[in-house]
């Protein structure tokens, strides 16, 4: 991606006062990241009753996609952040769900992501840099395991 294109994609993603389209945000990603981002988006939309919403989250996530398990859900199940050069999937998990999963059943990548997550109150925020389909599979493996534990 040429520098001017990358700069305009980042400016679009960071502009709080101009709501972008989801397609415009995805166009700001390189081809590999866009494929993985779209894969994550498809998988999140398949989850029963999940609703996709473009939201402004402020710095550092700026414009991102939030996924709720229905419109009345108190908080999103996942966030997809289309940051140019570094797309992210964040999965917030309640502490009570984490307590039900034996760490030995998790892969090394899943355990490391949980250890490096940020705890805010009773929620652990995990962050997955969407560099490849393998990372996406690890993230969704953890999401599936924790959803089945609750």
Polypeptide structure, described:
It is a single chain. With 150 residues, the protein is α+β, with helices and mostly antiparallel strands. The protein has one domain (3-149). The chain contains six helices and six strands. It has helices at 3-14, 22-27, 31-46, 95-99, 108-115, 133-149, and strands at residues 50-56, 63-69, 78-81, 88-94, 118-120, 123-129. The chain has a six-stranded antiparallel β-sheet. The longest helix has 17 residues, at 133-149.
Offer a quick outline of the entry.
This protein is α+β, with helices and mostly antiparallel strands.
Order of helices and strands: HHHEEEEHHEEH
Count of DSSP H/I helices: 6
Helix content: 40-55%
What integer is the average pLDDT?
89
- Alpha-carbon Rg, integer: 15 Å
Number of strands: 6
């Amino acid at each position: 991606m040429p520098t001017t294109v990358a700069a305009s994609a980042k400016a679009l993603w960071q502009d709080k006062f101009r709501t972008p389209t989801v397609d415009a945000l995805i166009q700001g990603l390189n081809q590999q990241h866009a494929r993985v981002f779209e894969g994550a988006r498809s998988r999140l939309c398949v989850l029963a009753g999940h609703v996709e919403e473009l939201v402004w989250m402020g710095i550092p996530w700026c414009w991102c996609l939030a996924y709720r398990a229905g419109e009345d859900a108190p908080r999103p199940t996942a966030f997809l952040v289309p940051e140019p050069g570094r797309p992210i999937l964040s999965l917030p998990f309640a502490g009570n769900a984490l307590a039900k999963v034996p760490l030995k059943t998790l892969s090394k990548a899943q355990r490391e992501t949980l250890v490096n997550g940020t705890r805010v109150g009773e929620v652990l925020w995990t962050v997955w840099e969407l560099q490849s389909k393998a990372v996406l599979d690890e993230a969704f493996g953890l999401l599936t395991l924790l959803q089945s534990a609750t």
